[in-house]
TrEMBL record:
InterPro entries in the record: Kinase-like_dom_sf, Pkinase_fungal, Prot_kinase_dom
Pfam families hit by this protein: Pkinase_fungal
Protein name (database record): Protein kinase domain-containing protein
GO MF terms, alphabetically ordered: ATP binding; protein kinase activity
Ranges of residues in domain Protein kinase: 22-223
Superkingdom to which the source organism belongs: Eukaryota
């Protein structure tokens, strides 16, 4: 990242970073930061979409190395939707790019392993994703539209579980978003950071329980 707040990724993406819209605070967690950005350069056209000059969202976070990138879950869900229920594409996020940066803090991670042990500390990677800008559902003023968006998000969650075989695992108001397509509002279930595949992964790939406390099962909080 340069002094004029340009973020350049190795696969041809260059972004001008803008307003920070979310920053996680705390010693424990992924240290997630989310910011708006303008696309300066991008690899040709993404799925026939010219993104140059468009506003997107950039998220970077320190995630356990063993955790499957959320871009893979989103891509799996979108492929399943194309074959099973195309209207679900309107309710899934669009991730344009995902990149991992490993070995950025080798000495720090080695020190943590030495002092805490392998059973407590997990290796982390810096994961950066670029995705379509969405709007929080709190911005919806009309009660009928809000109810419809909630219903769509619930239907998306259920479809993911039943058909895409993906469990989201981080249901919270901060992950309920919407966007407009041809003037119509569509609810979007965002943030697949903690998702799991019901077919290919165990119920937990991390040594720590993560989520949004008010929306977590009581058994997880007292465990």
């Amino acid at each position: 990242m340069s002094r004029d707040h340009l973020l350049a990724l190795s696969d041809g993406w260059t972004l001008k970073l803008g307003e920070v819209i979310f920053r996680a605070h705390g010693l424990i967690g992924r240290g997630t930061v989310v910011a708006k950005a303008k696309v300066i350069e991008c690899p040709l056209e993404w799925r026939q979409k010219n993104l140059k000059g468009k506003t997107v969202v950039v998220k970077w976070s320190w995630v356990p190395k063993t955790r499957t990138p959320e871009a893979e879950f989103v891509e799996t869900a979108r492929r399943r939707a194309e074959n099973d229920k195309p209207q679900m594409l309107n309710h899934l996020p669009e991730i344009y790019c995902s990149a991992d940066f490993d070995h950025l803090t080798p000495e720090c991670q080695r020190l943590l392993h030495t002092n805490l042990g392998d059973d407590v500390y997990e290796n982390r990677v810096l994961r950066v994703i670029i995705q379509k800008e969405l709007t929080p559902i709190e911005k919806i003023d009309d009660p009928k539209q809000l109810a419809e968006v909630y219903k769509q998000i619930f239907e998306c969650y259920r479809w993911l579980y039943d058909k895409a075989r993906i469990i989201h695992r981080d249901i919270s108001i901060s992950n309920f978003m919407y966007h407009k397509v041809n003037g119509k509002l569509y609810g979007v279930l965002n943030d697949f950071d903690l998702a799991l595949s019901l077919d290919h992964q165990p119920l937990s790939t991390s040594k720590t329980r993560t989520g949004t406390k008010p929306y977590m099962a009581i058994d997880l909080l007292v465990d």
